Automatic annotation (TrEMBL):
<keyword id="KW-0472">Membrane</keyword>
<keyword id="KW-0449">Lipoprotein</keyword>
<comment type="similarity">
    <text>Belongs to the nlpA lipoprotein family.</text>
</comment>
<keyword id="KW-0564">Palmitate</keyword>
<feature type="signal peptide">
    <location>
        <begin position="1"/>
        <end position="24"/>
    </location>
</feature>
<protein>
    <recommendedName>
        <fullName>Lipoprotein</fullName>
    </recommendedName>
</protein>
<keyword id="KW-0732">Signal</keyword>
<dbReference type="Pfam" id="PF03180">
    <property type="entry name" value="Lipoprotein_9"/>
</dbReference>
<dbReference type="InterPro" id="IPR004872">
    <property type="entry name" value="Lipoprotein_NlpA"/>
</dbReference>
Length: 275
């Protein structure tokens, strides 16, 4: 099943990448022209919503032409920035970016942090984390950094213990204490909300929770804490484009009081400004 899911993701990614590449001859493509539109690839929720707010309310006044391309996987945004079919992306946190660069040989860098989407444990079967039964099956995101992040959330809530030094790359093999004998179901992050009814619980990324109609602030049985959290989502570009005037302009707008108010009012604690 995992291989099948990965194959499906590859096909979807290839199709989206071709769509982005097809824009190469028009004004929607990435460009070094400071007067050209800035093309940003983003996850739909909340990243695309935040960028749409900037585009509709702030960009014109700031002299920025903004073109937003929404995708639902965690690979296309980085490959599009690396190959030049997009100028920037907004979907990931620094641990994921560092892991991606290491594994793919890309050279994408963070421009700034924008917001935090707290990772949460969700369940259709229990109302409190302590109610999970012995032998319960828990869904985990199967990408390297988010799986480690999910396991850390469970460890922080005393459900499991992890090997010393496991860090953000932790996998189920690093679980040294599992008193309730939990079983693990590793799935692509986007698949977890759709699979929650078949699991006892699932650890779900904030953007996918929101996309599926879940409200992290009220629906999660356990939610990550914001204090000292290294997983704030970032605006990222290929190394060397950090000083593009359009990128700098977008970075300023994403850190504006208007965007902070939009995030607070729209997501009410399910997405938290990181500036």
């Amino acid at each position: 099943m995992r291989n099948a899911l990965k194959f499906t993701s590859v096909l979807a990614t290839a199709g989206i990448a071709l769509s982005l590449a097809a824009c190469g001859s028009n004004s929607d493509s990435a460009s070094s022209d400071p007067n050209a539109p800035l093309t940003v690839v983003a996850s739909p929720t909340p990243h695309g919503q935040i960028l749409k707010y900037v585009k509709d309310n702030l960009a014109d006044k700031a002299g920025l032409k903004l073109n937003v391309k929404e995708v639902t996987d965690y690979v296309t945004p980085n490959t599009a920035v690396q190959d030049g079919s997009a100028d920037a992306n907004y979907f990931q946190h620094v641990p994921y970016l560092e892991d991606f660069n290491k594994k793919r040989g890309t050279d994408i860098v963070s421009v700034e942090t924008v917001h935090l989407e707290p990772l949460g444990v969700y369940s259709k079967k229990v109302k409190a984390i302590a109610e999970l039964a012995d032998g319960a099956t828990i869904g985990l995101p199967n990408d390297a950094t988010n799986e480690g992040r999910a396991l850390k959330l469970l460890a922080d809530n005393k459900l499991i213990t992890l090997k010393d030094g496991a860090g953000t790359a932790a996998t189920p093999a690093d679980v040294t204490g599992n008193p309730k004998n939990f079983k693990w179901k590793e799935l692509e992050a986007a698949q977890l909300p759709r699979s929650i009814a078949d699991l006892d619980a699932a650890v779900i990324n904030g953007n996918y929770a929101l996309d599926s109609g879940l409200k992290p602030a009220t629906d999660a049985v356990v939610l990550e804490k914001a204090d000292g959290n290294p997983y704030a989502n970032i605006l990222a570009v290929k190394k060397g484009k950090e000083n593009d005037p359009r990128v700098k302009k977008l970075a300023e707008l994403l850190h504006s009081p208007e965007v902070k108010k939009f995030i607070d009012d729209t997501f009410q604690g399910s997405v938290i400004p990181a500036f």
